[in-house]
């Protein structure tokens, strides 16, 4: 145990002097998280100003029900800004320039068509890039037209079935309450906000590079001829493996902890409850360490190990969704992503951020510990038999 | 001639290293594939549907959602799973038709359909579409209730009448038109957005990280030995620059051709795209020479190269499209050659531009290349001769 500590202390001080550990463990992830948080507008923070225009050439009752009733109401609720136009071309040019998101056009005779049961057409012109605003504008129109249609269908059905007084039927139809309504169940948000996502994503991505310094130094010791001397010393092989593992663990955990604090202070990342985050970090560091140790012990030279470790780290990081969230992607991709500790780490943070208790991190932590158990076993068997063979 | 041999040695060194092969050739293609698969399909909101009822009315409601082309509908069996997926963002919203849906409608009661959504802006819009579906279903039963209360027909018969009336599409209609020019272009292929970004990202990344090779050459004394032979320093510098440039160009060509063949990515006018590629490779080569002359430790230069390469790529719009950057960041992005390269490809692919229409982009890239190459070779000459 003492020997392991001595080895770890020596390795750690060596890594501090060599600046690459600091670069990969702190500077790179922090720098990238800063850049990402600057270039991506946080969707949750932006409010939508929906600007719509309307041209009413119909001047009938049905169009007025929309312009005077529905639009006036949504404008009073401050959900939309409505501008009236007398000319379609003028409105269209404002939509093209993007000052308006969408515009409604009621053509002459619209109300007559609706009242005569001939349907009726409303034009909705939207700016190509105002997707969400234009869809809100469309939804408002759809809601009104659905009511118009409902009355039309009710009156129509009554007429088909032998009714005759259109005006009386319409009034009665309007009084019948909706038969199907939506009831809202509010779901909490388990996705991380953009800043936290990139802070955590970059931290766990570069973690796999940081932990390699400890486990790979076994190969360097052998390459430089210091390993036989360690083996010759009256210490157990476990101490040597333990010392190297401890180096990786301390480097990884330090980098994660410093990054969590730094991103919280500098860019306002919200990692969640410290205890839960700490447990996730420990499990994440162990998983990363195990995986990198396996790559190290199956490699022949330090260069080969470094090469394969970068490949493994980058591929797992990509599949694990550290650069972009994959949850919205195809099912297969999100299943693949569960084969990486990265995905479990980010899922654990997401669940934690939704306000659930510590129990939320149990599954992710167990998954990451499973990675550690399997890979550490492989690394120890290989390591003792091959790398530590005299 | 000697410069050519130096260039050739550089290329050979690259090809013999398996991790370089991976990062230079395999990884960029993998990334184009993953990004295309994850985001290229165009964004279609996903709705998880759970049919708790068993009757024909419930079926009709679900069918309306499944048939709606605004959404991608996914079936769920358990409400807990559905709620969890809504919370994780796997699906954008959930719709649950309750077990008593048909019976309540048959009894003249109001049926409640459950909408599971998170309180963010986008959900407002999705909810409106589901609400419109609920309203259209509601209309049928309101009509049937009117007919029944007027004593004109029985409920079931009235529902059938109303359904057939609703199905004729005789109601009002919305004609949708769009105006303006889309920033992403109208017919963007699944992989078209990711491919140019990746080309630029990787050519620079490889060039900057490749500066480690230049430092190794110096540290191992190869450069000193070359200088001691009757080879002018100029030739050595041209050879080393040629090596950086050749590697950048080979990688760029591979990504261009590979993406076109494997994923059908369009690059627009070939002459113009070729000119962009050559200039991007030259900027990369210059950047690599500069890094290689500023650092003396190859490991540090390698990790710094990866970090600077990724950082500039993110800042320059290769990881997140420039189109969604805040305005000030778009200006800052144009400090990087990446942003200019992306603008160039965007013009070629989305606006069918030719070499004449990307003059400013080519000019700025040429300036970057000239500046980097001049600085890099000057610093390296100093290091080699002192």
Question: What's the number of helices of chain B?
Answer: 16
Separation of the first and last Cα atoms of chain B: 25 Å
Number of helices of chain A: 16
Proportion of residues in extended strands of chain B: 5-15%
Largest sheet of chain B: 4 strands, mixed
Give average pLDDT of chain B, whole number.
84
**Main sheet characteristics of chain A:** 4 strands, mixed
The structural class of chain B is alpha/beta
Q: Structural class from helices and strands of chain A? A: alpha/beta
N-to-C series of helices and strands of chain A: HHEHEHEHEHHEHHHHHHHHH
N- to C-terminal distance of chain A: 21 Å
Low-confidence stretches of chain B: none
Give the integer mean of the pLDDT values of chain A. 85
Strands of the widest sheet of chain B, in order across it, are 2-1-3-4
Fraction of residues in H or I helices of chain A: 55-70%
Computed over alpha carbons, the radius of gyration of chain A is 32 Å
Shape of chain B: elongated
Q: What's the arrangement of strands in the largest beta sheet of chain A? A: 2-1-3-4
Share in β-strands of chain A: 5-15%
Quantity of strands of chain B, as a count: 5
Task: Walk me through the topology.
The complex is a heterodimer of chains A (390) and B (386).
Chain A: H1 2-17, H2 20-39, E1 51-56, H3 61-76, E2 81-85, H4 88-97, E3 102-106, H5 110-115, E4 121-127, H6 131-160, H7 166-175, E5 180-187, H8 194-210, H9 212-223, H10 227-232, H11 237-267, H12 274-298, H13 302-319, H14 331-337, H15 341-353, H16 362-387
Parallel strand pairs in A: 1-2, 1-3
Antiparallel strand pairs in A: 3-4
Helix pairs in contact in A: 1-11, 2-8, 2-11, 3-6, 6-7, 8-11, 8-13, 8-15, 9-11, 9-12, 9-13, 11-12, 12-13, 12-15, 12-16, 15-16
Chain B: H1 2-15, H2 18-39, E1 46-51, H3 56-67, E2 72-75, H4 79-88, E3 93-97, H5 101-106, E4 111-118, H6 121-149, H7 155-167, E5 173-179, H8 194-209, H9 211-219, H10 222-228, H11 233-263, H12 270-294, H13 298-315, H14 327-333, H15 337-350, H16 359-385
Parallel strand pairs in B: 1-2, 1-3
Antiparallel strand pairs in B: 3-4
Helix pairs in contact in B: 1-11, 2-8, 2-11, 3-6, 6-7, 8-11, 8-12, 8-13, 8-15, 9-12, 9-13, 11-12, 11-16, 12-15, 12-16, 15-16
């Amino acid at each position: 145990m003492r020997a392991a500590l001595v080895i770890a202390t020596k390795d750690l001080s060596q890594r501090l002097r060599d600046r690459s550990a600091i670069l990969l463990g702190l500077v790179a992830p922090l720098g990238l998280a800063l850049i990402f948080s600057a270039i991506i507008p946080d969707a949750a923070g932006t409010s939508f100003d929906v600007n719509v225009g309307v041209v009413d050439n119909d001047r009938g009752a049905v169009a007025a029900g929309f312009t005077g009733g529905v639009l006036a109401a949504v404008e009073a609720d401050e959900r939309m800004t409505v501008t009236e136009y007398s000319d379609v071309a003028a409105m269209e040019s404002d939509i093209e320039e993007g000052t308006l998101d969408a515009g409604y056009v009621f053509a002459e005779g619209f109300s007559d068509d609706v009242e005569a049961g001939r349907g009726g057409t409303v034009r909705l012109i939207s700016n190509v890039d105002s997707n969400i605003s234009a869809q809100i504008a469309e939804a408002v129109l759809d809601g009104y037209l659905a009511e118009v249609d409902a009355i039309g269908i009710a009156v129509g059905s009554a007429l088909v079935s032998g009714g005759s007084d259109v005006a009386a039927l319409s009034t009665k139809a309007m009084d019948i309450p909706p038969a199907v309504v939506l009831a809202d169940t509010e779901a909490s948000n388990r996705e991380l906000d953009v800043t936290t996502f990139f802070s955590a994503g970059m931290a766990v991505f570069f973690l796999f590079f940081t932990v390699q310094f400890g486990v790979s130094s076994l190969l360097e010791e052998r390459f430089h001829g210091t390993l036989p001397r360690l083996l010759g010393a009256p210490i157990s092989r476990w101490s040597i493996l333990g010392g190297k593992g401890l180096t990786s663990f301390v480097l990884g955990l330090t980098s994660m902890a410093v990054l969590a604090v730094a991103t919280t202070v500098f860019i306002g990342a919200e990692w969640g409850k410290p205890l839960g985050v700490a447990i996730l970090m420990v499990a994440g560091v162990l998983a990363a360490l195990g995986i990198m140790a396996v790559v190290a012990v199956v490699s022949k030279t330090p260069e080969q190990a470094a090469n394969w470790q970068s490949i493994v780290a980058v591929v797992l990081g990509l599949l694990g969704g550290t650069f972009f969230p994959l949850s919205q992607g195809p099912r297969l991709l999100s299943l693949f992503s569960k084969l990486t500790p990265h995905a479990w780490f980010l899922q654990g943070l997401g669940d934690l951020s939704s306000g659930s208790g510590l129990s939320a991190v149990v599954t992710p932590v167990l998954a990451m510990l499973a990675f550690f158990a399997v890979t550490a076993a492989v690394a120890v068997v290989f390591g003792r038999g091959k790398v530590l063979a005299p | 001639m000697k410069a050519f041999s130096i260039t050739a040695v550089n290329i050979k060194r690259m090809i013999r290293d398996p991790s370089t092969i991976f990062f230079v050739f395999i990884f960029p293609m993998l990334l184009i594939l993953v990004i295309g698969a994850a985001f290229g399909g165009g964004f279609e909101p996903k709705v998880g549907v759970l049919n708790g009822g068993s009757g024909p009315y419930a079926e009709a409601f679900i069918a309306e959602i499944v048939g709606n082309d605004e959404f991608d509908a996914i079936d769920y069996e358990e409400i807990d799973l559905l709620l969890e997926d809504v919370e994780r963002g796997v699906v954008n919203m959930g719709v649950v038709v309750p077990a008593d849906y048909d019976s309540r409608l048959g009894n003249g009661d109001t049926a409640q359909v459950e909408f599971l959504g998170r309180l963010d802006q986008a959900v407002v819009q999705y909810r409106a579409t589901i609400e419109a579906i609920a309203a259209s279903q509601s209309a049928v039963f309101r009509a049937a209730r009117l007919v029944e209360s007027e004593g004109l027909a029985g409920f079931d018969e009235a529902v059938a009448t109303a359904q057939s009336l609703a199905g004729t599409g005789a109601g009002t209609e919305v004609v949708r038109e769009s105006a303006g020019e889309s920033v992403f272009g109208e017919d963007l292929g699944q992989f078209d957005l990711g491919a140019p970004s990746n080309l630029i990202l990787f050519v620079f990344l490889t060039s900057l990280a490749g500066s480690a090779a230049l430092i190794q050459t110096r540290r191992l004394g190869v450069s000193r030995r070359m200088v001691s032979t009757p080879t002018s320093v100029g030739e050595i510098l041209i050879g080393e620059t040629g090596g950086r440039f050749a590697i950048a160009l080979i990688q760029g060509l591979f990504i261009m051709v590979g993406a076109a063949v494997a994923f059908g990515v369009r690059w627009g006018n070939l002459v113009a795209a070729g000119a962009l590629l050559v200039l991007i490779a030259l900027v990369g080569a210059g950047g690599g020479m500069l890094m290689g002359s500023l650092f003396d430790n190859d490991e540090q230069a390698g990790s710094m190269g990866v970090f600077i390469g990724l950082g500039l790529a993110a800042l320059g719009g290769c990881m997140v499209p420039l189109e969604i950057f805040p305005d000030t960041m778009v200006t800052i992005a144009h400090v990087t050659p990446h942003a200019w390269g992306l603008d160039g490809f965007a013009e070629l692919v989305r606006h069918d531009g030719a070499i004449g229409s990307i003059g400013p982009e080519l000019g700025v890239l040429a300036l970057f290349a000239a500046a980097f190459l001049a600085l890099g070779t000057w610093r390296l000459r100093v290091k080699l001769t002192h």
